[in-house]
User: Which sequence fits this backbone?
């Protein structure tokens, strides 16, 4: 049986902390040489420190292990990770993808979506409403698989999770967003959709 390669990072489960963050006041462009990827980060998003990122990653991994009962091996490498006030996040990472270990990309993506769904179902407060969809979206003329989860928390707050993934040669590239503030979510989603791969 093929292993499901988790192409998500820990922040997808841990945003219910809703910790406040100091926010950057200027819009800035970031660039990643590995994927020749350029993106403008909107005002109000601050780069997470390595310690903040590691702590979020651990909490998310623990949540998935508790939900699945399986040991999670995380081989992701961070590209960028940003957070705004109120727990709205944007994260990008990559990891090697070996189809002999993980199977084909599409099957693995579906398996990962199921793990995400199961984790949300088990970790969210009782009474949370959850709706999911899987689509394909084009970013900078490249097709990305997209998994979206819309949640309505018992206290009435909406929570949106988005995961985009595609293979670049033998590397699996992933972007995840988690937001409660729709305005902040729209800002970072627009910035992602307008980003460029050379």
Assistant:
């Amino acid at each position: 049986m093929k292993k499901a390669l988790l192409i998500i990072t820990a922040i997808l489960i841990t945003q219910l902390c809703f910790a406040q963050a100091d926010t950057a006041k200027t819009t800035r462009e970031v660039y990643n040489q590995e994927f020749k990827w350029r993106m403008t980060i909107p005002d109000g998003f601050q780069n997470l420190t390595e310690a903040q990122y590691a702590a979020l990653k651990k909490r998310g991994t623990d949540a998935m292990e508790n939900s699945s009962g399986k040991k999670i091996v995380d081989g992701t490498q961070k590209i960028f990770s940003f957070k705004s006030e109120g727990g709205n996040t944007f994260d990008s990472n990559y990891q090697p993808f070996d189809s002999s270990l993980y199977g084909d990309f599409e099957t693995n993506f579906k398996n990962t979506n199921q793990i995400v769904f199961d984790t949300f179902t088990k970790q969210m407060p009782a009474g949370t409403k959850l709706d999911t969809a899987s689509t394909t979206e084009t970013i900078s003329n490249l097709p990305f698989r997209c998994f979206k989860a819309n949640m309505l928390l018992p206290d009435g707050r909406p929570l949106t999770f988005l995961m985009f993934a595609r293979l670049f040669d033998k590397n699996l590239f992933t972007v995840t967003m988690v937001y409660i503030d729709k305005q902040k979510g729209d800002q970072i989603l627009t910035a992602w959709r307008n980003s460029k791969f050379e």
